[in-house]
């Protein structure tokens, strides 16, 4: 690359092509300008304004409280970083119950700066997925444990343990790929089921708590950075203890003030 050449903007097609090259896809959540800019500067190719913003930033107990207006607000903030990374955003709870609402909600996120959208579900939302893709909006699927269903399901449970669940996961993944999704997040899925889905479909799988063998991995950045110290998650080894560093910095500054 010549010194003056700027690296090309990452597209949905570029993310998809990483699977064919056997290149692992690293994806992280970003909910605001500094996080999007820092993670982009670190070379992360896929950033997600996840509805996990509701828990780790807004203090809700789960993602079912997040509104489309809140998602637009955070997408606008992250998009101001003008990342080279592809910037995807979650369609929040109940914003894609019909084909019409799905397309309208996806368009609002795109108008706010998202370059792709993600929604939870497989065959149950196939008409919505087809309509979003037909509207020219790149789409990421999300299968396995679906956080927007946590209340019906009574918690965050691992999927794909039984044959029937594995078959259903495979059928959902194949349906999403045929409907035009360019990647699928697999959340809290057994490693064996994740391997099977990853082998079976041509688009990348991006795992979270789904073992090491997906085409990529996604994490909530707060978990990676130790910025959310109140839960211990099995699938994340924090690379930083930012929460303790923040407390220590604040204590130190307070002490210095009173000297
Ligand atoms: O909202 C989110 O952060 C997500 C990731 C966990 C995949 O959907």
Secondary-structure topology with pairs:
Layout: H1 12-21, E1 25-29, H2 33-41, E2 46-49, H3 53-56, H4 68-79, E3 86-90, H5 99-112, E4 116-120, H6 126-134, E5 139-144, H7 150-153, H8 163-179, E6 183-187, H9 191-200, E7 205-208, E8 216-219, H10 221-224, H11 242-257
Parallel strand pairs: 1-2, 1-8, 2-3, 3-4, 4-5, 5-6, 6-7, 7-8
Helix pairs in contact: 4-5, 5-6, 8-9
Bound molecules: 3-methyl-2-oxobutanoic acid.
Write up what this structure looks like.
An eight-stranded parallel barrel has the order 1-2-3-4-5-6-7-8, surrounded by seven helices. The chain has a single domain, classed as Phosphoenolpyruvate-binding domains (TIM Barrel), CATH 3.20.20.60. The model has no long low-confidence stretch (mean pLDDT 96). It is globular and about 65 Å long. With 259 residues, it is an alpha/beta fold. 3-methyl-2-oxobutanoic acid binds next to loops.
Quick recap:
The protein has 259 residues and is α/β, with parallel strands linked by helices. Helix content is 42%, strand content 15%. It has one domain (12-224): TIM Barrel (Alpha-Beta Barrel).
Key words describing this protein structure:
11 helices, alpha/beta, 8 strands, TIM Barrel, 259 residues, binds 3-methyl-2-oxobutanoic acid, eight-stranded parallel barrel
């Amino acid at each position: 690359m010549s010194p003056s050449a700027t690296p090309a903007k990452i597209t949905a097609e570029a993310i998809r092509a990483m699977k064919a090259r056997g290149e692992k896809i690293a994806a992280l959540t970003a909910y605001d300008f500094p996080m999007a800019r820092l993670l982009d500067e670190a070379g992360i190719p896929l950033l997600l304004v996840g509805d996990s913003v509701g828990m780790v930033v807004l203090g809700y107990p789960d993602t079912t409280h997040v509104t489309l207006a809140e998602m637009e607000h955070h997408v606008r903030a992250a998009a101001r970083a003008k990342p080279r990374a592809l910037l995807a955003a979650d369609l929040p709870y109940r914003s894609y119950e019909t084909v019409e609402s799905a397309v309208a909600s996806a368009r609002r996120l795109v108008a706010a700066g998202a370059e792709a959208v993600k929604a939870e579900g497989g065959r149950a939302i196939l008409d919505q997925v087809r309509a979003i893709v037909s509207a020219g909006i790149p789409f990421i699927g999300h299968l396995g444990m679906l956080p927007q269903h946590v209340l019906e399901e009574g918690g965050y449970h691992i999927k794909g343990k039984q044959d029937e669940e594995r078959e259903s996961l495979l059928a959902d993944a194949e349906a999403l790929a045929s409907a035009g999704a360019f990647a699928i997040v697999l959340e809290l899925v057994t490693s064996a089921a994740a391997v099977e889905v990853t082998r079976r479909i041509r688009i990348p799988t991006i795992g979270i708590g789904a073992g090491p063998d997906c085409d990529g991995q996604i994490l909530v950045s707060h978990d990676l950075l130790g910025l959310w110290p109140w839960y211990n998650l099995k699938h994340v080894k924090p690379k930083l203890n930012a929460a303790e560093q923040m407390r220590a910095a604040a204590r130190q500054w307070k002490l210095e003030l009173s000297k």
